[in-house]
Amino acid sequence: MIGMLTGSVIVIGTDEAILDVNGVGYLVKCSGRTLSTLTAGESATLHIETHVREQAITLFGFADEETRAWFVKLQSVQKVGPKAALSILDVLSPAEILSAASLEDKTAFSRANGVGPSLASRIVVELSGKSPPLGRGFSASLPGSSAATAPSADMVLQKDAASALVNLGIDPAQAMRAVAGALQADEGLDLNALVKAALKELSG
Q1: Rounded CA gap, 18 and 26, in Å?
Q2: Which of 40, 55, 97, 163 counts the highest number of beta carbons within 10 A?
Q3: Based on the domain organization, do 51 and 71 belong to the same domain?
Q4: d(CA 56, CA 97)
């Protein structure tokens, strides 16, 4: 299986790109968000999720490991396939997916092409209160990589704040919901302020 590709970007299409790796052109399906990070003629590293089907092998590429992990996580929800997962990642960052799920914000998921109200509700039900997915743990300083593979600062902040609340005896799902609500009200909070704001959410 292919887990990562580093090479020169030859072609950027509507929903795919061709990456030249040592003379071999790999066709990689990507979200618009990932494609926007690529420049034709320049080197790039894509984290790959390989889908093997009876009649085809499809490579899905992502600018960072965190997004690839969420691509897999989203497909754990019944009726969410690769196309819907890519559409969601086109409109929501990993941190925004975590917040939307915690706040049970069906509207956020409905913004993605191909995700109707029923599927958005299912996503919220199955992801609400769940921890973010663990990636493969690749180093953030890979040759040719323009994007860090470590979890984003927003994601780390949410996890740390939720963990602090859980340590105070608060249910994990409630903790994540309170943290997401506090961040929605003020995105500029540091960890201590976020924990205090989340506690206020819980007591409100």
Answers
A1: 5
A2: 97
A3: no
A4: 29
Q: Do the domain assignments include residue 203?
A: no
Cα separations (Å) of 25 from 11, 22, 92, 100? 10, 8, 29, 37
Name the phi and psi angles at 129, rounded to 5: 80, 0
Q: Please state, as a whole number, how many other Cβ atoms lie within 10 Å of the Cβ of residue 182.
A: 23
Residue 139 located in a structural domain: no
Farthest CA pair distance, the chain:
60
Pair 73, 120 in one domain:
yes
CA angle 97, 98, 101 (to 5 degrees): 80
Polymer length of the chain: 204
pTM: 0.72
Alpha carbon distance 5, 22 (integer Å): 10
Domain count along the chain: 3
For the stretch 159-178, pLDDT in tens is: 888 888 888 888 877 888 88
